Each structure stands twice: as C-alpha cells, then as structure tokens.
Amino acid sequence: MDTVAHVFLFALVYIYPPGEYPQSLLEESFWSVMEDYPILFGRVQHGADNGSASVLIDPELKPLLLFVDRPEDHIALAQERPLNLLPLRDERIFAVKVSKLAHGALSIGLSAHHSVLDGDSMFQLMESWGRAFRGQSKLMPCHDRSLLFSTGPPARAHPEYFTVPVPIEALQAKARSSSGPPSTTSVSLYLSPEELVKLKNWTNPPDQPAGHFASTMDSFIGLVTMVVGAARDPQYSFRSSNAINGRAKLGLPPNYFGNAVFTAIMEHRQEWIGLDQDKIAQAARRVRQGIERTSAEFMRDTVNYLDTQPRQERIVLSIQIGKDFIVSSWSGMGLLKPDFGSKPVYAGPVRIELDGCAFILDSPQGGLEACVSINKSVGERLPGLWQSVRDRL
Questions:
Q1: Is the pLDDT score of 64 beyond 60?
Q2: Engineered SS bond to 247: which of 46, 50, 243, 252, CB 3.0-4.6 Å?
Q3: Per-residue b or e along 263-291, where b marks 16 or more CB atoms closer than 10 Å to that residue's CB
Q4: Of 1.20.1560.10, 3.40.50.300, 3.40.470.10, 3.30.559.10, which CATH number belongs to 184-332+351-390?
C-alpha cells in the first residue's frame, strides 16, 4: 500500500477534556518519541526509473510541531471536527498542531504522508507520545521495511488497482481548479454495544447455511454500505473497498511501522441493495468474503504485482469517487489508547470533502461509529434510514 497511498492524506485529530497539559512537557516528550522515528525526518520521493516511493532522510527537514491558542469549547469541536484543527503540511512527512482550547482542554491534529505510515502506525506513535508525557516507557517501533519486499513475479492480476495515464498531480490540479462550493457533508452513524449484538444476531440467523458467518464488524460495515446505497437516488450498482490491516495475516511484528494496508473490493448490484434483514445479512457476508479473499498469499502477490508496474507513482485504487464507497476501519487498533493524563473524548477524522467514504471508529461511550463523508443530498437521507434500521433491531 506504500505504492498507492501517496494520493491520500493521512489526517487524524484527538480532542482531550480539560486537564494539565504543560506545553514544555508536550514538546519534550514529543521530540523524545521522534528519536525513535528517523524515517519521519525527510521527504518522500519517487524513483526516476519506475516511480517507486522512498524516503530521502534529511535531519534538517524535521516534523512540524505547532502550538496555537484556540479558546473554543472542546465538546463543540468534537462534534464539528473542522479541517483547521489540522496543521498545514508542506513537503515534510509529518506535522502536528496542538490547539489549547477553552477551560484547559486540548486538541492534537496530525497530518502525515500516507505512503510512510497507516492508522495502526499512527496510533502506536500517539500512544508512545502519551506514555512519554506521563513519564512511562515508550513503545519501540519496527522499521524493517524488508518484511514487505517483493518476493517474485505476481501470480494474478489485481484489478483493485489502476494506473492513470497522466501524472496524478495534474489530475489533482485539474480537480481543484474545476471544483465549486463544497458539495459533501459528514454524517455520524452510531450503534450501541447492545444494538451491535442484535445486529450480529440479525445477520447470522439460526437457519443460515454453513459457512455464512458474519462478524460484528462485517455486519456493521455491511449495514453502513447498504444504508449509503439505499440513500442514493436513483439507486445503482456500485463497488466498495475495505481497507485490510495485513500485519496479523502476514506475520509482521505488531509494532511494524509503515503502511501495511491492503484492499478488498466488493460488488453491490442494484438488486442487492436494500434495508430489509436479508439484504443487510447478504451485504455483511460479502464483506466477510472480501476479507477472506484477502489472504496472506493474496497480500504477498499484491506486493509482487505493484513492484512490477512501470509507473508506480500513477497507481490508484480502482474506485470511482462519487460513485463507489471506501471504508476504513480504525476499530480495535488502539485508536483511543493515547493517554495524556486523560483519555480522548474524540479520536478520528476531521470533516473531509470526499464523496463516498467512511471511517469506522470505536466510540468513547462504547459501540461503533461510522463517520461518513458523502454527497449532501444523500447525507440528508442517511440519519432517517439509519434510525429506521435501529428501530427494527
């Protein structure tokens, strides 16, 4: 995933309740942690031969750490999650913006080059910073990128990726110049722990055929996907992508620092879209089947395939923004672990202008939350459709 992640910005914000957060201690502990991450000092470059991504280490190009005063209520900001909680990152790989909020609350906005790290890596880095801030031992990362090197020629094609015919920067510049006012909105869809149990029972009826099991996460992602599909007018067939953390399947160290995310693609035909129990259960099973197809062998072959591509800096996911649906789950990955004397009241994405993506988060009050960025007209219909399913669980 290092290869294709360069088109995405990795952005994350933590919001903490009122407490004692001395700036000097935040700075001291941050730079102590940065000693363990030399790969964050420098910039990403693409090779002239095949466009492969690498990091040019430059001790002078160190991560940005910015402190600002922002006398706003932390609860309101946790609900609004505005983009300006994040730092503006130049060619640097990593930037942090610490905002001192009203009544002693705090927000930490993070922006990073996605080719260098994924969510799992960022959460471990943040947990280590919190531990250093509290005077505890840091978490040591594993920087051995050779664990994900190519092992030979690929055995299959990988239609989950696509090579664009022109430099991606040109496409991005064209999109920026032709874009009008923001046409997307962000909607939060939540289920409590009790509702999640009911949903899993819903998607795993006693009379289902053998081998049709769907986990709680499968069921939640399937439900979110069906609600989005049902909210579109007119409804149409589409595909969804599910980001898969490859660490466990590939036997990587749990502290592997990098981008070990792979992609599962699911098809959702128009006649499969709906909010009745059977269609939601089928969607959950499609999610499970996509995850099972993304085996260790598949992941290794993906690396081999990407390594053979002649213009790696032009490879993107074969997902159409505005038509398809991108899902990334940050649940169960330690998102809420970073502790700076208090646990966060919110940890997750800011509101982004992207039509058709969702981040699955562990909610601080328990349960799961999907932060969905979607076309405004679709977003207006999401809460009502979501509630209609909750009422039937």
A1: yes
A2: 252
A3: bbbbebeeeebbbeeebbbbbbbbbbbbb
A4: 3.30.559.10
